[in-house]
Structures are given as C-alpha cells and as structure tokens.
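The protein record quoted in full:
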Amino acid sequence: MMGDKVAIITAGGSGMGAAAARRLAADGFNIAVLSSSGKGEALAEELGGIGVTGSNQSAEDLERLVTRTMERWGRIDALVNSAGHGPRKGLLELTDEDWHKGIEVYFLNVVRAVRLVTPVMVGQKGGTIINISTAWAFEPSPMFPTSAVARAGLASFTKLFADQYAADNVRMNNVLPGWIDSLPATEERRQGVPMARYGKSEEIAATVAFLASDGAGYITGQNIRVDGGLMRSV
C-alpha cells in the first residue's frame, strides 16, 4: 500500500535505478521514473506510479517528470539520481567532446534535477537527494576516466549543497557502488574485492532506501561506499 511520500528516480528503467524504484515502492513511496527507454514507463505502471520516457540530460524531460509528479501528488520527498554510461578511452585519447559528454552523463544530470526539486523540498521543509555515484570517485580507475573525474566534482557539489540546504532539512548524499551485478562479471574483478563477490543491485537499493528514510535524517553531505571493501582509504 502506497503512503504519502513520493520519490523520483532518474535513469530508473534498469539496473540500480530500477532496483531503487522497486525498493522505495516496497517501503511505501509513490514512484515516478524517468528512463530513456520504455522500461521506465513499464516499471512505473507496475508500481502504480508515473513513468516518463526521456533523458536526464534534458532539462525539458526532467521538468516534465517533476511537473507530472507535482500534479499527481503535490510533493517530492526523495530524488534518486542514477546515470547511464559515459565515454571510455585512454586518458589522452578522450576528446573535448568526450569530456563534455562525461560531464553531461555523470554531473549535470544531477545538477539539472536538483535545480527542479530543491525549491519543492525547501517549501515543504524537508527532502532527500541521493546520487548513485561510483566507488572510483576518489581513487580513480583508468577504466572509467570520465566517470571518475565528473563524480569527483559531484562529491564537491554534494558538500556545497549540504552546507547550503541542511538548515532547510534538505539532505544530499552519494552512494558509491563498486562492482555490481548489473555489470558484466569477470573473475579478475571478483578476486579484487575483499568480499570475493559482486554486489547486488538490491544492496545498492537498500542503501538508497536507508538514506531516504527517517533513520538517516542526520546524514548529509556524505559519500557512502558500498563496494565489498574494495576502497578503504579515507
């Protein structure tokens, strides 16, 4: 049975975004999903929510989602920003266009959505924003150069946002997944994880759900690793 709370999930048609949508729905949230494929609309229909086919790189598509959400429920309690995949090449093989694309996919996707929902959350005196980032935001891997660089910027943005909006009871945190089962599995990667396994999308979703809960009401501006012990530096 749905409650009064409302969650928006971007890039939520599959993978960790879809798992987060399912978990939040199970926790009683009304769900609105943005996806570039029809999967988001199908998932939203299954969950009794709103689905919009569009891109989180489009301010117009995001505004359409937020508008429909407000028209139906009149509030937004949680925003979960997931993302697709940016360019992957050798570091100096990346063109200016590749870097710009990485910033669009991994950083501006969050900024655009946050601009839209923050006034709503401030007006209702509460809300939480959860960004699905990467375990490699602070210890970058050459496998994911545009992701690591853009999401290091996202970590700074998150701290700046938390400083500015904590007094309004609007929180922002990042979840940093390691190797998750929504990615192709390799034995080499699995052996590099102290827990000796890939994480599950449902485990990321559970972390998202905790951060969206009242129990996380005193947590903001944080980067929370969910990576089986892969990264252990401060």
Residues 191 and 197 are 7 Å apart (CA to CA).
